[in-house]
Amino acid sequence: MAVFQLNQLPLLSRSALDRADHLRADDRALKEGWATARLLRVGRGGAVRYEAGALIWDRAVDLAAEPSPDAVFLGIDDGVHLWAVRDPELTGSLRDLRRLADTSLDDFTAGVLSAALALINWHTSAAFHGADGSPTRPAKGGWSRVAEDGREDFPRTDPAVICLIHDGGDRVLLGRQHSWPETMFSLLAGFVEAGESLERCVEREMREEVGLDVGDIQYLGSQPWPFPRSLMLGFCALADPEQPLVFSDGEIAEAHWFTREEVREALAAGAWRTRPDGGDAAGPRLLLPGAVSIARTIVESWVAAGDTAPAQ
Pick from 216, 218, 255, 246: which is nearest to 233 by CA? Predict the structure, then answer.
């Protein structure tokens, strides 16, 4: 079974948020909507207040009488404008996107948090124009920044590939970064370089990280990754399990070929972050990322495709 497709959309790609982009440049509409708008406060590390299965929103007018330049316009929900603002002093029942995704997260909340985190993270590093260092100010509800001479910058998104390497049968290669627990493995990934196609990036990154030559590269799907502002582009590729593994770039601590049955058992064990022992106690040889990552969707789809493949 060498070819498969995603059996579902990655979690953060299922956004049900109406971004209402036609309102971003309409200052009058944004000002009028601010009176009844809801405001999401985003704390350190992207944490938000979350109780009883729902985000906790404030009234926007409690922040300022008019749209604040520190806030970003996310869209509308049932006619009500939605905004977000960074609040380093935020307290309360706080949860971050990764932990929320590993428990329960509806498509609307996923869309809200993906947009809010990506925009807020971009503004943090975009206060000055990249060409000459001149200061910029937010515009269009936070969806751009403008210099004094009118030059406009837009939110930056960094494309990265993430690839499931398989042997064409029942084995898949998974790697572990140095900072991860000893049993935590995932797919290999890397950023797309300037002037590089996605397919060539897959070839280069897989060779750099584990020394494998891959072929039969197939695109699977994409997912926003607001940590801080990336777009993950999912692929699968074929490699020879007999080729020696070489960790030349130092990013991967170790990598191993796992059988489909081992991966199936790891999926059943749950995500590393949701295990009662935090994934550190003695247990399965393999633990996988949580639902927030497209890596888990790709792995689940590969396992499911093998389960339904006709017998040879």
Answer: 218
